[in-house]
Amino acid sequence: MYYVYILKCCDNTLYTGYTNDIQKRLKTHNNGKGAKYTRSRLPVELIYFEKYDFKNDAMKREYQIKQLSRYQKLELINTIQ
Length: 81
Hints:
The protein is α+β, with helices and mostly antiparallel strands. Helix content is 42%, strand content 26%.
């Protein structure tokens, strides 16, 4: 199983990524060992994720989400709440 996720950083910015272990990846981010972008914006909070069976599908979706504006990402997140 693969996941595409959106994190909310402590400065209210959003970070999008993909992983095959979402809990481990969230822990890695919050330990300062994740993406360079999140290291200076700790702590981060998982606010959205999607599941995929194939890595390639998750990577494509990650790219699509990264192309969205902040407003569009927030709309996407609000569809599940």
